[in-house]
Amino acid sequence: MGLKQYFQINKKHALLVLFLITLTQLATTIYTYLTSPELNAISQGKFTIFLILIAGQFVIGQICNVSYNLASVENTKQTQNLFHEVRQKIIHHYYQNPEKLSEMENHLGNDLQIIQDSYYSVYFYFLCDFIYIILTISTLFTFHWILVAFTLADTFLAIAVPKVLEKYTNNATQAVSSKNAIFLNTIQNWFDGLDELRRYKNKTVLKRVIGQKSQQLEKSEYHRSKIVNYVQLVSSIFDVIGRIGVPLIAGILFIKHQVSLGVILTAGYFANGIFWSVSSCIFKYVQLKSTQTLRNRLFELQKVTKESDFDPIEKIALIETKNLCVQYEHGEKISYPDLRINIGEKILLTGDSGSGKSTLLKVLLGEISPISGEVIYKDKEDRVIHPDLRQIGYLAQDLIMFPGTINENITMFDKKLNKKVPKVVKSTQFSSDQKRFKKGLATKIDPKKNLLSGGQKQKVILMRSTIYQKSVLYLDEATSAIDEKATTKILKELTKTPQTIIMIAHNLNSQQKQLFDREINLEAK
């Protein structure tokens, strides 16, 4: 992320901001410059000329005020448009490459706020100061070249020091981002189990763990602030030298009759303006450079990788596994028998806890990579194909609901599917549940509140999977919270479809099991 993206969002808008900033600083320079002829006019008794110059100074001052405020408003608009696009690109990146929720929150929230506060907002004022410095130094040429030479020499020394410390400020900013990500991840991990902590009245451990991570974040913020302020301290020394040096040199030139009396006062004003701006520019430059690593990271996250060419899942005619073996992080290994599942088969997957049933589905979906063996998908001609596994229907044990109505959660916000909703409501035995809600399917859902029971959520997710008519469907304990009678009716409807279904279940009765073509029992080893 940088100025290039800022201009690419809307070039005309960006150029307008640049024009308004330049106009503001030009007006400021002329406003200050008029002090010299005003002083000369009043010292020479030319009161009329003095009043004309004062009037002109007033008009120029108003132009400065208007142009500056317009520039600020337009810059905010341009920046917000840029951030909107950046967020969309980062969301698209995570849609393709999911990561931890805390990492996504950190990039979309904290990191973008750092870039806003320490780069784009800073760049606006940096540009204001930089243009002002160029214009005022150029104006000093009209007084005497020695004033320019001294100003340039002092400015060069003031800029050289922060350049040396650039690496340290950059690392400090990256450390803040990293510690914030860890802090957010800790909050997520522990607050997910907040009810359990309350149940056992264990507030102490929560405060201790969150406190430790919070302290680490605060230390990184303090370290970054300390480095930036050290740089500002050094630049302030050169600032003071410049503010005193320019009017002193102007005074010496006046004594030698090389400049007028008005130049001493005006040069002093310019010196204050220049070296305040130089000091400000140095501080802002450090802030700008400190965000480089973070900006590069966010720029990488905006890159959209080209989707691979996949075969449609409708081509799947055979699912085959050979010599599959999966190893968990703690070292346990699970080996699976070789499987062949034909198109349209309804498979019941059973086994003891720890036999790897859910893990097998995740391997088939490509979410977990085996340490050995392979999963093979073939078409009707027995050719190996490469389907987009993300498009396979999957009902996991963790039921995902979205803020919206029950109907929207069924159709996944696709209004074109609304006509099919009544049919899937009937097939999943949700009709009686629907009547319990005053607004029926139009009832709003808050994922954080338990408006729906576990069984009702399972029915909604089943309807979602059914309405999209996925040719392959993997179900992990899809009816575990649904009563026996409703489960039987749902399974009868599911097993009538032409879909290839692999369903994990452990509590089915003999009548329900008979609805499947066959049962595969995994044994824990």
Strand percentage, roughly?
A: 5-15%
- State the helical fraction: 55-70%
| Overall mean confidence score, pLDDT | 81
User: pLDDT under 50 segments (min length 5)?
Assistant: none
Structural class: alpha/beta
> Which shape, going by the Cα principal axes?
elongated
Give the number of helices: 18
C-alpha-based Rg, rounded: 35 Å
Report the span from N to C terminus: 52 Å
Largest sheet: 5 strands, antiparallel
In brief, what are we looking at here?
By secondary structure, this protein is of the alpha/beta class.
Structural features:
525 residues, alpha/beta, five-stranded parallel sheet
Structure in words:
The two termini are 52 Å apart. Strands 1, 2, 3, 5 and 6 form a 5-stranded antiparallel sheet that branches. The protein has a 5-stranded parallel sheet with strand order 7-10-11-4-12, sandwiched between helices. A two-stranded antiparallel ribbon has the order 8-9. The radius of gyration is 35 Å and the shape is elongated. The protein has helices at 3-9, 11-33, 35-43, 47-96, 101-140, 145-164, 166-191, 194-199, 203-255, 261-290, 292-301, 357-364, 406-411, 421-427, 431-435, 454-467, 484-496, 510-513; strands at 318-327, 333-335, 339-342, 346-351, 372-378, 384-385, 393-395, 404-405, 444-445, 472-476, 500-504, 518-522. The model has no long low-confidence stretch (mean pLDDT 81). It is α/β, with parallel strands linked by helices and 525 residues long.
List strands and helices in order, with pairings:
Elements: H1 3-9, H2 11-33, H3 35-43, H4 47-96, H5 101-140, H6 145-164, H7 166-191, H8 194-199, H9 203-255, H10 261-290, H11 292-301, E1 318-327, E2 333-335, E3 339-342, E4 346-351, H12 357-364, E5 372-378, E6 384-385, E7 393-395, E8 404-405, H13 406-411, H14 421-427, H15 431-435, E9 444-445, H16 454-467, E10 472-476, H17 484-496, E11 500-504, H18 510-513, E12 518-522
Helix pairs in contact: 1-2, 2-4, 2-5, 3-4, 3-10, 4-5, 5-7, 5-10, 6-9, 6-10, 7-9, 7-10, 9-10, 14-16
